[in-house]
Amino acid sequence: MRFLIAKALSLAVVAVSRAITPHSGFDPSKFQPHEAITRNVCIIGGGSAGTYAAIRLRQMNQSVVVIEKENRLGGHVNTYDDPVTGAAIDYGVLYYEDLPWVRDYFNHFGIALERVSVLGQQLTQRRVDLRTGTPVGPAEGNMLLALASYAGQLLKYPDLNSGFNLPEPVPPDLLLPFGEFVKKYKLEGVVDIIATFNQGAGDILQQLTLYMMKYFGLDVLQGALSGFLQPTTHNNSQLYGAARNELGEDAWLNSTVVATHRHEDDEWVYVLAKTPAGQRLVRAKRLIIAIPPRLDMLHGIDLDETERDLFGQFSNTCYYNALARIPGIPEKIQFLNRANDTLYQLPPMPAVYIISHTRSPNLTTILYGSKEHMTEEQVKSNMTRSVLQLRNAGIPVQAPEFLRYSDHSPFLLTVPAEAIRNGFYRNLNDLQGHLSTYYMSATFNTHDSAQIWRFVDGLLRAHWTP
């Protein structure tokens, strides 16, 4: 019976398809009935935003299909199953703020959570200039007093982590380079901790205050002081494995978009995907794009002039992480890359952010950032050079043996202050629902899973709830 219903739906897809005039050179009517499926929503991207949207929509009795280019869901989540200890080692996303919707999401899959103190974790921090191996002194200023002052600034903008719903005119402070904002309000004591949490943000002193405050907002600040959540298994991929099981055949992995057909006069959106089973056609009422809205990431999507103009204004940082065995590195040590000859001791980019021991006695994570994109060979070479500089700090390390490597570029997408003053984010928000398409990646809120889920849930409630 299920096969007959599916076949009837497929025939209906083709019948409707033949009646439309394609606007992008993509003609859905050329595909066979068995290659077409009908869903309420087609989601491009199975990272944090896309997976959460799929699960929430199914809870709202909407049918979905997720098209994901990787062989797994989860985006920036990276987990390694250590064959030596049997432990799961997260080396991508680590923690989540303790917020109701975070607990609800994990509870939906029966995944237990525990609170973890990051600042009080059982790791000894050493501050080292990884260009030379030279020790670096303590951070400037009083962190706790500066955090209190910083929290006061955040309270001026209570809706900052609910997307980019900015007041007009945009408050000038939000458009200051963060380094100028720090000087203006004497917040020197927060720079070091924000640099530690805002990995992947590049030169944080040059980034606009808006982006830094969204990335290190009140919820993150509270988590830094009182603790975050993580699965008791210390395996964040467990969440996405459970989501994959729930979605079943509606999660198309190792799949990419070939073409889309969207038009304001059409009732349906059409998406042609390349999958391991061949090309497949999706007919959906609505489309969700949950990948970074950079033009080079949106191949196959029939963007109109408005979308192209907005997305073409983005710049981005680049972010990479690796898991390695480093013979000679001591256990329970975290090396922060700092400098003796720079403002606030921040290392010049490109650079390693942190070299950190994991809960496995054999494994270490290395986090790296750059402004311009670098090849895997370049990043690993620079990581290796930085690790070997620890010899000058008296640590008899050997070159790392890389077990896993991930390139999370493009990472933080930003636009200049002038564009924001001229209404960039107002125009970006206006894209929600344009051509039956909704945008839900981190770019539309911030690189923080808990805040992404809050943003996605708000959009779904606004546009899908009767």
From TrEMBL:
<dbReference type="Pfam" id="PF13450">
    <property type="entry name" value="NAD_binding_8"/>
</dbReference>
<dbReference type="InterPro" id="IPR050464">
    <property type="entry name" value="Zeta_carotene_desat/Oxidored"/>
</dbReference>
<dbReference type="InterPro" id="IPR036188">
    <property type="entry name" value="FAD/NAD-bd_sf"/>
</dbReference>
<protein>
    <recommendedName>
        <fullName>Amine oxidase, flavin-containing superfamily</fullName>
    </recommendedName>
</protein>
<feature type="signal peptide">
    <location>
        <begin position="1"/>
        <end position="19"/>
    </location>
</feature>
<dbReference type="GO" id="GO:0016491">
    <property type="term" value="F:oxidoreductase activity"/>
</dbReference>
<keyword id="KW-0732">Signal</keyword>
